[in-house]
From TrEMBL:
Organism: Petromyzon marinus (Sea lamprey)
UniProt domain Timeless C-terminal: residue ranges: 981-1061
Low complexity bias: start-end ranges: 968-981
Residue segments, region Disordered: 497-520, 910-981, 1071-1095
Basic residues bias (residue ranges): 497-506
Biased composition (Polar residues): 920-934
GO BP: DNA repair; DNA replication checkpoint signaling; replication fork arrest; rhythmic process
Designated name of the protein: Timeless circadian clock
Keywords noted in UniProt: Cell cycle, Nucleus
Feature: compositional bias, Acidic residues: 947-965
UniProt xrefs under Pfam families: HTH_TIMELESS, TIMELESS, TIMELESS_C
Annotated localization: Nucleus
Molecular function via GO: DNA binding
């Protein structure tokens, strides 16, 4: 009962863990619980209660507190609990304790599955948890000051576990098919057993030292000896024969003091070389947010008997347990049966035991379970996920960085294993390795781009130096494998993914209406007139599949009149008389107001004259290609091609082009940062760094990438090192880079200034070949020829002359006039607009956009009556103006409708037209749908308040296209947002996955916090800059960065998990519908996207009129 009372007390402890600390201060575990466990283990009730209490008391401090506390008070409690745990571990370094546990566990495992009671299963799990907790206790560096080959506390616990036979029971649990439910517990214990070991040390234990280790020790001793001799010579040189009290005073010419005078030096001449103005000053403290990430716990060499036991355990584990255990653990992880972040143990075990197998004598059958394409995919997925979480959870960036490092180590060992398979004497093993490399590792783009991405995303404040070292070594091995693979083949075909930004068009390019002469226009009209007369008089059937507007366009239907006119003209230019007549009549039905396309009862002669005017007109709109008449099957195939967003193709791989991906400043900075510690690096690490730098700089003739002052400081330290002859490879490379720099400096006197900056390949090209060469023909710039000072002056003059044309005539604007009068006729409109913005002549390129559409000014009598009827119908609704705008037959902007209501006297103040809201909310955040059964992608709109301030009211004009369009409610599908047509299918799928994952996390954690959307792939990064994709994000309620301190868009906390899943399902349905769209009801022409209420109503009206005919 006393033991149960202690268990009940522990349930009531507060956040400071006061009861746990009191029990630790009283040494209850050492003085009472362990003796009870040893001498009363036959009492089953008491034994089970003691095990429960021991499991509770030995829980890791990181589990109790959730994370390492930062505030002083909580951190003090955390350290106190950790000290008690270390004392508990001392009590478990007893062979008798583990003997009692192993005997009890053995007896329980002897029972058949049917004979085990629930209490037996719980007892097995608790004993495994107890062993896990004891192994998890970290060492105390202040108390354990053991040297290598000495027995530490962890070694003594391992030896007690071995002598009790617990290790045999662990191997049995791994290999027995009926005990696979304990696979995660056993894997944790095994990982914690080897936490201080390295595979190389265990492999070399118990045998003769290999020659490689002897050579490494000899080289290290030679380095130390050379440095010691250099220091002795340096001290001898500084020693002067003159007494120190008569050192003298010197004036150093050419070395200024803190004033403008020469430096007065009061010490010996021998000490002048190391003089600096910073001597004696307090070094500047580095900000906490810029501190380097701490390294993981250090490894040490255990006692010989412990290493021999662990080596034997590894051999037996690989022979009988590894494949079965890793299969069970992988299955548990994929089915999400384990706890959070259990993947870390899986990746650690994969890296450790595969390296042990590789160093001991490679046997691929022992690790066959973890050598395959699925393992590569699993590790790559976890690596990417850890990086995303490291960016999102900034407070927990270090734990996620360690997990990311474990994933990288596992990936490194997989690549090393592939290299070992190439060296195998068995043909089947070599063939298996080639299948993995050719069909997946080198073929799939994600695997090839992984290392480039990791280099560019490296952050020394979150990722330790050891991560960078493993990244460099892994990249070196991967490049060596890839080069060897390409060298033995004539051509290597790899996968290539490309995002299609434009829709395909089957139409032939037609000459623009502005390029035709009057004679050509008249001749073509004579050819078309007979066909048009036949269609107009009904002699031939007019095709009814012509649609005058683009239902998937972002431009509202009522503003597509001008585009409809351009479509009719394009059909006439293409010689498709029937299509032109059909478009004209359809446009008359969609836009009857104003009789722009003729009256309802127009005669065939007037209709023919209207077509002639359209044919001869010089329209300001771009010509719209008209598709040829094709069958339903061909149309369906064409539409499938149009909606594909990501084009997956194959191309011939070029190794040199792939190396160019590493030619960037982040890669060079990371490599030089690691090379700065060349003394602490191993010889293999220094070799890997030099080979990568040599491939990029010397191999691509881009030595200028390393023309940077910090890199030269590293080269200076290498060349001045007393043991420089040991670093011959580094010294040779450093001399080559410095020599190339002085060759460039002899021709470019600005090279010394360039040393202050890291450079891109374009900067290197300009620095070595001449400034401006990248624009004048170097082929490294896509922005067109550079603007000279004379051209900029000419552009400024032309803009001042024609700037009154902004917003004026629809035929020509200021840019058109500039293009006619500028001397360089090769300049495009886009280049001119960009240069105008760059020179500050206009604030934005939007100011120079051509106006499209026809303005609606007059209100007819029937339209006023309709407006009054709608006002009386909706005057009691929550959003009066919104309902009126949506139900008007002739669509008008909200501002026009509001002005008309005021002029008719139906309302006296604009405030009466504002939406009635129960509480203030942001227009960017998603609001729950009041109707649970409503479609989240329905046609309903939730508009923003109109004319909420005078500034917005004054900024709207009658011809506006974007401002007049109602802003859809969050959750509504944006107009024209077909992801495949915009090249956004993959980003939309990624967005849906992020929303669903956020919903799962919020349901599991029970809390809702804003979650940033972090794009990793280049495709998703481009999508976040895409205007259409950002419009989709706003429509879904995703919040944009609030200030300059925020970088990513965020999923707001107001969204419930059910709402997030609903939106995610709609996004999936959106992409699916773009792939498999049905034909129209009339046997139709293709896919018409129901993306908004206006388009749906216009389409329904059109179909209704056709059926009536």
């Amino acid at each position: 009962e006393t033991v149960k009372d202690l268990i009940r007390f522990l349930r009531r402890e507060d956040d400071s863990k006061d009861i746990r600390q009191q029990l630790g201060d009283a040494m209850i575990l050492q003085n009472d619980l362990v003796p009870l466990l040893l001498y009363h283990h036959n009492d089953q009730v008491l034994f089970q209660a003691i095990i429960r209490l021991l499991v509770n008391l030995t829980q890791p401090a990181i589990v109790l507190f959730g994370k390492v506390p930062t505030d002083p008070t909580t951190r003090h409690h955390y350290l106190a609990v950790t000290c008690h745990l270390q004392a508990y571990k001392q009590a478990f370094a007893n062979e008798k304790v583990f003997t009692v546990l192993s005997e009890t566990l053995y007896n329980l495992l002897q029972l058949e599955w049917e004979q085990r009671q629930e209490e037996d299963t719980l007892l097995i799990e608790r004993m495994l948890l107890l062993v896990r907790n004891v192994m998890h206790v970290p060492p105390d560096p202040t108390l354990e000051k053991n040297v290598d080959d000495d027995a530490s506390l962890h070694d003594r616990v391992l030896w007690a576990l071995h002598m009790s036979g617990m290790d045999d029971l662990l191997r049995f649990l791994c290999s027995a098919p009926s005990e696979q439910q304990w696979c995660m517990h056993v894997l944790e214990i095994v990982c914690l057993m080897f936490r201080m070991q390295t595979p190389s040390q265990l492999v070399s234990t118990g045998g003769a030292r290999p020659e490689r280790e002897k050579e490494a020790d000899t080289t290290e001793l030679e380095l130390l000896r050379q440095r010691e001799l250099a220091e002795k010579r340096n001290r001898m040189w500084h020693r002067s024969s003159r007494h120190s009290r008569f050192v003298g005073t010197y004036v150093v010419q050419g070395h200024k003091s803190i004033s403008d005078n020469d430096l007065v030096f009061h010490l010996g001449v021998q000490k002048l070389a190391g003089y600096s103005h910073d001597i004696g000053k307090e070094p500047q403290r580095r900000p906490k947010r810029r501190l380097l990430a701490p390294e993981a716990e250090e490894r040490r060499r255990s006692a010989m008997n412990v290493r021999l036991f662990l080596r034997t355990f590894c051999i037996d584990f690989l022979d009988a347990c590894y494949n079965r255990l890793m299969y069970s653990v992988k299955d548990t992880l994929l089915l999400e049966k384990g706890q959070q972040n259990d993947e870390s143990y899986y990746m650690w075990a994969l890296a450790f035991f595969m390296e042990f197998n590789r160093l001991r004598g490679f046997r691929p059958e022992l690790v066959s379970e973890t050598v395959g394409v699925r393992t590569f995919h699993f590790i790559e997925k976890n690596l990417t996920n850890c990086y995303e979480m490291m960016l999102m959870e900034k407070k927990d960036a270090l734990p996620w960085s360690r997990r990311m490092h474990l994933a990288l180590k596992a990936y490194q060992e997989l690549i090393m294993t592939l290299e070992e398979m190439d060296k195998s004497k068995e043909e089947s093993v070599r063939e298996s390795g080639n299948v993995i490399k050719c069909g997946n590792l080198f073929y799939v783009m994600e695997y090839r781009e992984l290392f480039v991405t990791l280099f560019r995303k490296f952050d020394e404040t979150k990722q330790p130096r050891s991560f960078l070292r493993d990244l460099v070594e892994t990249t070196h091995t991967f490049l060596r494998l890839l080069q060897r693979f390409c060298r033995g083949r004539k051509a290597v075909v790899v996968q290539k993914k490309r995002v299609k930004r434009k829709k395909k068009s089957r139409a032939q390019a037609q000459p623009s209406s502005s390029e035709r002469s009057p004679e050509e226009c008249e001749a073509q009209w004579q050819q078309l007139s007979q066909q048009l007369i036949a269609y107009a008089q009904g002699a031939e059937a007019v095709p009814d599949s012509a649609v005058p507007f683009d239902a998937a366009s972002e431009v509202p239907v009522e503003e597509q009149r001008g585009q409809a006119t351009a479509r009719i003209q394009a059909a006439l230019l293409a010689g498709q008389a029937g299509t032109a007549v059909g478009l004209l009549r359809s446009a008359r039905e969609v836009w009857p107001e104003g009789e722009v396309f003729g009256a309802v009862g127009i005669t065939p002669e007037d209709e023919l004259e209207l077509l002639r005017q359209i044919h001869a007109a010089k329209l300001p709109f771009e010509d719209v290609p008209v598709e040829d008449d094709v069958g339903p099957e061909e149309m369906e195939e064409e539409e499938n091609e149009e909606v594909e967003a990501v084009s997956v193709s194959e191309k011939e791989f070029n190794f040199t082009e792939y190396i160019k991906r590493f030619a960037s400043a982040p890669v060079m900075k990371a490599c030089m940062s690691l090379l700065r510690g060349y003394r602490e690096n191993s010889a293999h690490t220094n070799h890997c760094i030099v080979v990568i730098l040599h491939r990029v700089t010397v191999g691509l003739h881009m030595e200028g990438l390393l023309f940077q002052l910090s890199a030269f400081r590293v080269f200076q330290a290498i060349l001045a090192d007393p043991a420089a002859h040991v670093y011959q490879e580094l010294s040779k490379f450093a001399r080559h880079i410095v020599r190339k720099f002085f060759e460039v400096a002899a021709q470019n006197n600005k090279s010394f200034v360039e040393l202050l900056f890291w450079k891109s390949p374009a900067n290197v090209h300009e620095m070595t070949e001449g400034y401006g060469s990248a624009h004048d023909g170097g082929g490294l710039s896509k922005k067109g020829p550079r603007w000279t000072e004379e051209e900029q002056t000419e552009l400024d003059k032309l803009f001042s002359e024609f700037q009154d044309q902004i917003g004026g005539s629809q035929d020509k604007d200021v840019v058109d006039h500039i293009m006619e009068h500028i001397r360089d006729a090769t300049r495009t409109r886009k280049q001119i607009v960009a240069q105008l913005v760059r020179q500050g002549l206009v604030n934005s390129s939007k100011e120079l956009k051509r106006r499209k559409g026809v303005k609606l000014v007059l209100w007819r009598e029937e339209q006023e009556m309709e407006l009054q009827r709608l006002f009386e119908e909706f005057h009691k609704s929550d959003d009066l103006l919104d309902n009126i705008v949506r139900n008007l037959t002739a669509k008008r902007s909200r501002k026009k409708v509001a002005d008309k209501l005021l002029s008719m006297g139906l309302v006296s103040d604009r405030a009466q037209l504002r939406r009635k809201r129960p509480s203030k909310s942001s227009g960017m955040c998603l609001q729950a749908n009041s109707n649970n059964n409503a479609d989240p992608w329905g046609d309903d709109h939730d508009h923003l308040d109109v004319d909420s301030d005078d500034e917005k009211e004054s900024s709207e004009d009658e011809g506006s296209s974007d401002d007049d369009q109602p802003i859809q409610r969050a959750g509504a599908r944006p107009a024209g947002a077909r992801p495949a047509q915009a090249g956004l299918a993959e980003p939309v799928l990624w967005l849906g996955n992020c929303l669903r994952r956020t919903a799962d996390d919020r349901e599991e954690d029970g809390i809702s916090l804003p979650v940033p959307l972090v794009p990793l792939s280049e495709e998703n990064e481009d999508a976040m800059e895409n205007r259409v994709f950002r419009r989709l994000l706003r429509a879904l309620g995703v919040c944009s960065p609030a200030n300059h301190e925020e970088t990513f868009w965020r999923i707001p906390a107001e969204l419930t998990p059910s709402r997030l899943r609903e939106i995610s399902d709609c996004l999936s349905a959106l992409t699916d519908s773009d792939k498999d769209d049905d034909d129209d009801d009339d046997g139709g022409h293709g896919v018409i996207s129901q993306s908004g209420g206006r388009r749906a109503e216009a389409l329904q009206a059109l179909l209704k009129r056709r059926k009536q005919r």
